[in-house]
Amino acid sequence: TARPLRAGSLATCWDTPHPLSHPSSPKEPSSEQKRHSSCSRHKSTHVETSETERNCVLSCFRKSLSWHTALRIRRKSEKRDKEGRKIENGYRKSQDGLANKVSVKVQTRGSKRTVAAKLVNKKLLRRDQVLQEIRLLQTLDHPNLVRLLDTYEIANSYVLVLEMADQGRFLDYIVSWGNLTEEKAALYLREILEALRYLHNWGIAHLDLKPENIVVEHVSSQPVIKLTDFGDAVQLSPTSSYFHPLLGSPEFSAPELVLGQPASLMSDIWSLGVVTYVVLSGASPFLDESLEETCLNICRLDFSFPEDYFQGVSAAARDFVCLLLQSEPERRPSAASCLREPWLQPRGVANTGSATFNHTQASQNHPASHLDTSRLISFIERRKHQNDVRPVDAIKAFLHTRLGPPATFPQRSHCPSLSHKSPAAAD
Question: Where in the numbering of this chain does the Protein kinase domain appear (predicted)?
Answer without folding.
Answer: 88-344
